[in-house]
Amino acid sequence: MRMMNNAVHKAFIDLDTILLALKRNRLSLMIGEELIAIPEWADWLIWLGQWMRSQANLEGRRVAVIRLPNRRLAAAFTAIGSVFASNSVHDNTLDWAALIDLDPGTKVFWRELSKGKFTRRSGTVIGVRQIEGNDFLEVLSEEKKNSQQSNRLFAKSAALSYGITLGSITALADERLGSGERFLQAAISDAPKGWINSPSIECTIVTERSTFLTDIDGLSIIVDGITKANCADILAIADPGGKSHGKTKITSARNYGVLDEFVVFSILDGPVAASRLMDTSADSVVIILDQAEYDEEIDQLLKSYIGYSVDIGVHLPKSGLKAPPSSIESYIFALPKATQRA
Length: 342
Hints:
Elements: E1 2-4, H1 15-21, E2 27-31, E3 34-37, H2 40-55, E4 61-68, H3 74-88, H4 92-100, E5 107-114, E6 117-131, E7 134-142, E8 149-154, H5 156-162, H6 171-187, E9 203-206, H7 209-216, E10 219-223, E11 227-230, H8 231-235, E12 248-251, E13 265-269, H9 271-274, E14 284-290, H10 296-306, E15 329-335
Helix pairs in contact: 2-3
């Protein structure tokens, strides 16, 4: 990977620990009923997604530009790499900080265990109440059976164990999230639990939703030939209206305004998405293009951003960069935070 403004900055997290927590050689790809080794290009994109997502926890902002013969599935594998990294850096104290920062009136969802079964609940945030020096999230609960309302107080430990989210978790969604969680636990050394149920969206893919979902349909990844999950479950894709819980958001480049608000990692898939770079706010952005799509217009657009590049923002692991296969061209540059869309 070519480095624009080579700069190594002191890390506040250990990039190597995150990258090496996933043993990629333990992963295999299943297409339909056929089990194959993960192709070299896909393996590199998984690594890239890990590295770029990990850097989002560090100082600065950076953009990686990827050119390859065919970008079909490239965004999916890059996003899967980001899932591995997000899980590894997960800190549930940040989940609690996000919850108590919710505006009053925000609708939230959670699950309660009763008689061996989870019951879905919902309510609206009232705010934070302090009791004996401890913070509690106060929620006006909605009881569906009798339409009554009651105030609930969630301590930090309870809020996280209940899995309070901004989108509902149906029985089907719960099954899919469970599949993704089991896969991550099998794939990552010392993987923390609970990331997949934590409240925030962490990755935005700017692409055509229907095409993306069709491309990954029937595609699964297996750990050690035993633990399998399909790609949609690993990504924990949220529904487009934000009504159901998920960790990965798919949005269209035709949407107005900021494309990735409150998200730390974004993938711009294709030339139309790449043209919306100015409408992103993520700290790490990956642009993916077919070689045929990298035309003069795209070249001039990216050169205009490189003209603003800075020396701080690209963080190298001590183990070095993983070289891309010969079929992939790539470069990365750092941008000032002022280039983020508020």
